[in-house]
Amino acid sequence: MTEARRYRWLTAPAAALWMLGVALPLLLILRLSVYSRGEISGARQFETLFYQPETWTLDNFVQVLTTPFYLNTLAFTIGLAVTSTVLTLVLGYVVAYAVYRSSPAGKVVLLVLVTLPKFTNILVFVYGLKMILGPSGFWPVVAAEVLMLLPYAVLTIAAALEAVPFSLVEAARGLGASAAQAFWKVTFPLSLPGTIAAATLAILWSLGAFLGPYLLGQPAQYTISVEIDRQMNHDLNWALAAALNVVLLGVMAICGYSLTSIRRRLA
Amino acid sequence: MIELVEISKSFGSVRALDQVSLEVAPGEFVAVLGPSGCGKTTLLRAIGGYIAVDRGAVRLSGHDVTKQPPDARRVGMVFQDYALFPHMTVLENVAFGLKMRGENKVTREQKARAVLELTGMDGTEARKPSELSGGQQQRVAVARAIAHEPDALLLDEPLANLDRNIRLRLRDELRELQMRLKIPTILVTHDQEEALGVADRTAIMNHGRIVQIGGAFDLTMNPADPFVSEFLGLDK
Amino acid sequence: MKRLAYLIVGASLIPLALSLLVSFTPSRFLELPGDEWTLQWYRQVLANPVWTRALLNSFVVAALTTLISVPTALAAAVGLSRGGWRRKPLWETALLAPLALPAVAIASGLLAVVRATPLWGSHLSLALAHSVIATPVAYLALRASLERVNPHLEAAARGLGASPRQAFRYVTLPLMAPGLIAATLFTVVVSLNEVILTLFLATRDTSTLPGVIWPNLRFAISPQVAAASGLLFLLSAPALAGAAWRLIGRR
After folding, report:
1. Superfamily of the domain at B2-74+150-231
2. Pseudo-torsion of CA A198, A199, A204, A210, nearest 10°?
3. Nearest CA in chain C to B143
4. What does residue C17 show for φ and ψ, rounded to 5 degrees?
5. Which of B73, B79, B148 comes nearest C156 by C-beta?
């Protein structure tokens, strides 16, 4: 045990990077979200970040949660995420099922082809999409999101399917089930926890959608993330950007938590 | 000389070793026999230094090594899966112990070659373990374990993964080699025939204790209790 | 069913193929090259200091990111698997959290942190930001390869006189080579392709290729952008080939 204890020090660099790159930024976002910047704007805001009396306010949240523009943006973000997630799951399941039923060589070919886009730059990818889909709008944005999410969904669902021995399906067929019955009564329920894991991943990532909406959408398709970028880097209202971040993280936490507890109950 | 003085080891509420004492004289070959979970592998790991005993003492060639890690003990261990380093050649595997003890390249290769010859594996120096048959891998594992002239040779079911014919031949080779080198040796096995056929003395273990220890004749003629006679198949 | 799956997968590859093809077009517009293929857009990109500096920055930042992420992830993988942690799943989830968090949140938080330090505007700040995302990815590759090493091997090495450090150095580490290669490739690919952190944290002097492609993609679409994207793909291609080879080679 004492020897095991000594190994724990090896996690120190990762812990340091985590504190610096994850914990500190999130804490700073929390602080900024209740920050009253007064007349100070732009990059100078960080100079007054540290505690000062009378720089605490809930105005940023009030602004986010009462302005129709932000509420619409939030509703659109959630709607886009749900649409993308559902489409991703359907298409991902089809591909994953094909992987499941392929020969070992076929599995490798399919999986390599599926993951290929992930090794290319997202911008290369969006650039090509722009050429195919022409004018920007809602469906090009959805297409971009689905294609970005697809590889992860396929990998997660395929892993879940691989764990279902095909002999179970054969046994069901032997007991008189049709192919469709065997699928819906045996294969699908057993792959459901993995499918929900894929759904969790897909909804979390599409709630943060940024590149697709920005590059392929009209302003009507701008998401919370796009608005955060605008407040952060153009309007230089970091406090409002932080409040938007907190709201986004809150929505993600709710989605992630509920899907995870559904998966727990199934497993 | 291997000396174990009332060593005990518990894992949670399970007593894996319960005041085990055992002496193995230089050149002696002792087999430890028992059903799975009787503590025989724990015994071997305690001698090798892979687990720390709760109480008692382990002495090798007169030195108390109870508190020492494996690399400070001079022990040669042969694992059931041989644990040959797959990225090294046969020669590098056998010379590894000498390298860790700071021998220069020429000396350690010379010694490793000699040991390989002793185990009948000369000619395979440049091969990788994956290119060898199970029996050959076992011989290389034995060569690696004895190359650094250990104070004790510990064999953890070294023949379990082999075909019966090869097993019998390797068993006899192993014994012959051990008699030439005069290293005190402990063989852990669950195979009565293997234990009784090769060892000077056999220790029967159950529930972390040595129930009886003696030669094949002793054990079969005077089993200490019903467990021993049942385990040795003497009831039939 | 299978035909449908190949159709879906094929469709998902079209954007990539198109943008690569367009980079060879002789036209000034986004048209597919007909009979005539040209490298003129690549030549233009490589002659333009804005692009070449971005290319150089991409190399520097990817190299720094690899130097930070891979050792950090390796140490974390060994420390987590051998530390005898009671709440290992929790710590592992925390370590992997950057993969689930929205990039914009991490990026805006990091911007606020980095602006308050002298690191602002340095390659190192960008590499550290990329490492926040790349370390969990490298960790996943290294954890898998560490788990595949038979623990008896290190035990055997210890018995032959190797200290814990020597046993790791001579036995486990060489056997983790495939995982180390994969982790390095993934890290390079993550860094080369990272857009959002780059947009938020890079300055004009440190911006990597995606950061320079970005405004061009929004405002001025020309085959030059396709060529720059093509270069980026070319840079990631060896990593891609390596990963594919490993995937097939393992079977």
Report:
1. P-loop containing nucleotide triphosphate hydrolases (3.40.50.300)
2. 90
3. C160
4. -60, -45
5. B79
Residues 6 or more apart in contact with residue B217 via CB below 8 angstroms: none
CA B223, distance to chain mean position in Å, is 25
Q: Please tell me the distance in Å from A258's CA to the nearest CA on chain C.
A: 15
Domain assignment of residue A232, given as a range: 70-266
Contact B79 C152 (CB under 8 A): yes
Task: Identify all chain C residues contacting B101, using CB atoms and an 8 Å cutoff.
Answer: 161
Q: Shortest CA distance to C1 belongs to which of A236, A101, A14?
A: A101
More confident site: A238 or C138 = C138
Q: Is residue A13 part of a domain?
A: no
Please report whether residue A206 resides in a domain.
yes
CA atoms within 13 A on the CB side of C146: 18
- Considering only the beta carbons, identify the residue of A17, A32, A120 that sits closest to C131: A17
Q: What is the CATH number of the domain that holds A190?
A: 1.10.3720.10
Per-residue pLDDT averaged across B56-63, rounded? 93
Beta carbons within 8 Å of C225's beta carbon, 6+ residues apart: A127, C213, C216, C217
ipTM higher than the 0.95 cut: no
A89 contacts chain C (CB < 8 A): no
Q: Where are the domains of chain C?
A: 35-249
Q: Where along chain B do its domains lie?
A: 2-74+150-231, 86-149
H-assigned helices in B119-158: 134-146
Closest C-alpha to A123, from C214, C238, C17: C214
The tokens for C178 are 């495939």
Neighbours of chain A (3+ CB pairs under 8 A): C
Burial of A101 (0-12, 13-18, 19+ CB in 10 A): middle
Q: Which of B4, B21, B42, B26 is nearest to B149 (CA)?
A: B26
The 10s digit of each residue's pLDDT in B95-127 is 999 999 889 999 999 999 999 999 989 999 999
Q: Which of A101, A112, A120 sits opposite C233 (nearest CB)?
A: A120
Q: Is C112 on the interface with A (CB under 8 A)?
A: yes
Residue B76 at interface with chain C, using a CB cutoff of 8 Å:
yes
Which structure tokens are listed for A70?
A: 């932000």
| The token pair that represents A107 in the structure block | 């599995």
Q: Is C176 on the interface with A (CB under 8 A)?
A: no
Q: Looking at this protein, which amino acid is placed at residue A160?
A: A
pLDDT digits (tens, 9 = 90+) for A142-196: 998 998 899 999 999 999 999 888 889 888 888 888 888 989 989 999 999 999 9
Question: What residue type is assigned to position C205 of the chain?
Answer: D
Into how many domains does chain A fold? 1
pTM of the model: 0.87
Bridging pattern class, strands B201-206 and B29-33 = parallel
Chain A contacts in chain C segment 187-216 (CB below 8 A): 189, 192-193, 195-196, 199-200, 209-210, 213-214
Instruction: State the Cα–Cα distance between residues A141 and A152, nearest whole angstrom.
Output: 18
Classified by CATH at the fold level, domain C35-249 comes out as: MetI-like fold (1.10.3720)
| pLDDT interval class at C231 (50, 70, 90) | confident
What is the token pair recorded at C48? 């333009």
C-alpha distance from B212 to closest chain C C-alpha (Å): 29
Q: Which residue has the tokens 């709440």?
A: C87
Closest Cβ opposite residue C115 in set A3, A10, A46: A46
> How many inter-chain contacts (A to C, CB under 8 Å) are there?
254
The CA distance from A104 to the nearest CA of chain C, in Å, is 8
Using the Cβ of A180 and the Cβ atoms of chain C, whether some distance falls under 8 Å is answered with no
Report yes or no: B144 and B158 within 8 Å, Cβ to Cβ: no
Minimal-distance CA residue of chain C relative to B144: C160
- Predicted pLDDT of residue B185: 95
Nearest Cα to C132, choosing from C204, C206, C190? C190
